Amino acid sequence: MSIEPLQARPKESALQRSPFSLRTWKDLAVDHSGPGLAMTGLIIAAFVFALFSGGPVAWALSGPLLADGHIHRLFTHMFAHAGLSHLWMNVAGLLALSPVVYAKLGSGLPGWGRYTTLYFAAGLAGAALFLAFNPTSDLPMVGASGAIFGLWGAAARAGPESEPVPLWSKQVGLALRDATISNVILIALLFAVSRSGDVQIKLAWEAHLGGFLVGLFLMPHLIQRDDIRLSASAPP
């Protein structure tokens, strides 16, 4: 009688778990946190610089400012934040979502390039949707939320396989639900703050929506799929 040794169950990969679990973020952060840390460093440096150079308003975006030729504000607004709480919330989202997304984009410079493309495409789409809804408003917009919601939408398409998670899936539906709930809560909080003080504060939900949709639809074109190599042997 022969006894075959029991085979150990293969260790579960981080990407075989939900991209929205704390354990997944913790495991992925070790090897895939580079782009997120780099972008966080730029955002913090810009926040400190803005404190000594006119404040975040000098970096902000609005329709009238854009009409006056301030094209650079399409990019600078992504690095400006209205205060420490605003900065903290965006940095937390950036550091949490970046490893999940970057892990699916490939390594090295190509992976960094795809991450950067996704980030700025989502940020610009968020700015475009904000301007479309508020073309003449003098209330400027600042913050990286549009780009970060783009990472959220992209993470919704990241799964354990090399192919993107289908658009009409439970995972995408849950991400859309959670993103909507977070916006509703933030709108209510900012409305309460505005009613209790003299400062007018509004949530740029349009930027969140624009960024999320770009991440949702662009991610499948950026994911690095497993190469399939076929070899043919000559007949004997």
How does this model look, in words?
- The protein has helices at residues 22-32, 34-51, 63-67, 73-76, 84-102, 108-133, 145-156, 170-196, 205-222.
- The longest helix is centred in the last third of the chain and has 27 residues, at 170-196.
- The chain is 59% helix and 0% strand.
- The protein contains nine helices and no strands.
- The radius of gyration is 21 Å and the shape is globular.
- Helix 6 crosses helix 7.
- With 236 residues, it is an all-alpha fold.
Q: Which range does the strand content fall in?
A: under 5%
Name the average pLDDT. Answer: 83
Total count of helical runs of at least 4 residues: 9
Helix/strand-derived category reads mainly alpha
* Element string (H = helix, E = strand): HHHHHHHHH
**Got a strand count?**
0
Strand count, sense and barrel status of the largest sheet are: none
> Helical proportion?
55-70%
Low-confidence stretches: 1-17, 227-236
| Apparent shape | globular
Instruction: Give the end-to-end Cα distance, rounded to a whole number of Å.
Output: 38 Å
Provide the gyration radius in Å.
Answer: 21 Å
TL;DR of this structure?
With 236 residues, the protein is mostly helical. The protein has 9 helices and no strands.
Features of the shown structure:
disordered C terminus, 236 residues, mainly alpha, 0% strand
